[in-house]
Amino acid sequence: MSDEEWERFLRESVAGEAGAPVEPSARAREVQRRLRDRSGQPEGWRTYSPARPRRRTGWYVAGLVAAVALLIVGLFPQQVLGLFGGNDSGRDETPSATESDRDPTRADPFRGSPAARWADGAAGITVPPAKATGWMDAAQVERALLKSRDFLVATGLNSRVLRGERPKKAIALLNPHQKDVQEYLRTALSSKAPTPKTDPLLLFSRFRPEQAKPVGDVVKTHGRLTYREGRRGAVEVTADVTFVYPVTPTGDGGRDAEVIRTIVRREVVMSWDDPAKIITEPGTMSLDSYALDMTNGGCSAPTGYFEPPFGTADEQSTDEDHRIDPYDRSKPIVTSDGTKAEGNDCATATRS
Questions:
Q1: Which residue in 239, 229, 217 sits closest to 88, CA to CA?
Q2: Is 5 within a domain?
Q3: Is residue 12 part of a domain?
């Protein structure tokens, strides 16, 4: 600024003339200096600068994990399904080629079978929560359910009954006033030549001690109890349970002895009757029906015992019409007379 301009500036400032320039304040001069020192165009205080896009590393990782999981399921479906148990409402796991080709041994009697992942004994029989039904309150229903499971244990898991002894504990749970069932018990447990309707295997799992013996102490089970209100206010309990029995020939104690799995599925309908309407005894129930499917249990006329087909592994039928999957629980047992399964006794199992 020249001297003349400076003097004019002072005069106009003192006189207060309109349009006279105003000297910036110290704060304004400081702001101007900072703006000059900044590189690039200054950003207004009302403007918006979008943030830099972030790399979505988390999504990439999640996608990679999902892809690996799908690959594992595709390559090893049996192992993945086995982590979550069997499917009670339908067909059990489809066997892989390696699983089907593995035979049971005395050291590992459930090797190569879906039952290897099942629970042992009574633990495999699911009991539902109890609620008041029919003539019973919730506590009474719970006792009825537990006693129903006790009946299945006494008929299908008791070691003495498996050796052919009299099923005393099971009989004690049956209504002694139910004449048709009592007659069945007398005939089935005394006859040396039972008929299809009087075969004790309809209710009791038994092996002839001189022919077969269990491998180990474990029987694998898979099934459940359900209940509803039945006739005359009774609590009707239905059991649908599959038992897998590994057995070996009696007297053959070698490590390489043949092991066969006899697979038995039973459906039993039990009625816990109102004593005010039905003649019964405390703690006992009536049998409405009982049905059986079995595989590897014998194809001859009823003898009252399961008879595993030892030594006939190479004689299995290749007829597709006579081949069944004993682990398929998707359909109810088909019966001809209300007590006996129809046509499956001598079918060849696609797996055991």
A1: 239
A2: no
A3: no
